[in-house]
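To the team - protoporphyrin IX containing FE complex, inputs and output below.
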Amino acid sequence: MRQKYSWKQRRRLTDPIEEHVAFSDTESKIAFAGHPLHAMMVAFPIALAFSVFGADGMYWLTGDEFWPRVALWAAGVAFGIGVIAGVTGTIELLMVPGIRIRSASWTHFILAVMLLSVLGLNWGYRLDDPVGAVLPWGFMISALGAGMTGITGWHGGKLVFDYQIGTKQETRSK
Ligand code: HEM
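Output:
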């Protein structure tokens, strides 16, 4: 049978993380004019990861060798800017107490590092033979990369819109 707690006992059951003095200290430190650099940069790997997938699909449909060249460049730039965005996000994660203390931030970090490995693989796999690499493995890696980008990007949005991570304290509703 479930144990019944009195109102006084229930009042003592608090979340130690929410109670922590650092919990509300979430303001971005790696920012330009108050706007987090990470949020500015992630748009590029997100768009380019989907572009690689699209270019592979176009090659499959048309057989035109223009598309594997597009995919090679898109994969390389997605990986390069993704790594730089990851570095800014990681500095933020380690430096800002209210970001560091939340488990959701670490979940985003783990998702993002897995994604960056897939983006790197997608680029490296194509370097020697961009055309031959597309079917079937390049296309499959692109599909995985696009799916993981969707999940990581959605989760990054959750950090900002649900937990107000990276936002200024004085503008936040209490
Ligand atoms: C590798 C380590 C990463 C860390 C530690 C990290 C950390 C963070 C943090 C702390 C935020 C909150 C905003 C801020 O303070 O800047 C954030 C937001 C976000 N992240 Fe990451 N991130 C990483 C990589 C990535 C990657 C690779 C992507 C996607 C390609 C991504 C997508 C996003 C998105 C879409 C947001 C929401 C931005 C907004 O709507 O303003 N992150 N991330």
